[in-house]
Amino acid sequence: MLEILSAIIFVFLRMLSVVFPPLPGFVFDLIGIAVFGKWLGLVLGEIGVMLGACLAFFIARKYRERLVKKFTPLSSLNKWVEKLSGKEQFFSLLILRLSTSMFFDVINYAAGLTKIKFSRFFWASFLGSLPSMFLFYYFGGTAKQLGLGYFIGFIALSLLLAWLFVRKARKW
Prior knowledge:
By secondary structure, this protein is mainly alpha-helical. Helix 2 (25-68) packs antiparallel against helix 6 (118-146). The chain contains 7 helices and no strands. The chain is globular and about 45 Å long.
């Protein structure tokens, strides 16, 4: 019973980290690796990510800019909306997902402000998020299996890369 409850809590927290962009999702992924291992952690993490993506999409679709601006800056959001507009929305979204996983949360809201069909949004988001999630959970889980020192090194490397990305993103 405790395992099921912990999995539900994890999925919920991972979902929240997508809906509220300031919450760093990779921190929850590290917890998922530590608690559930690489394979179950990956499945639960991806479920949480997709639930969060869908929720953010529908928040943007229903409440538009007036509520979305409370979750993410409109200036960066408008940039992504422009990239998602047009006939090739599925492939544009898929390419954005594959190449900009750090902007995953903002792109969910941006997609909700476009006319993309939900089914296209869902599949592009799923197919685009899975490779980076797989790599993170695979290498994180492998580091955990190799021992505590390796896992701590993986955590330190993840934190360093996130810090460098945030520094770079502020300049954009």
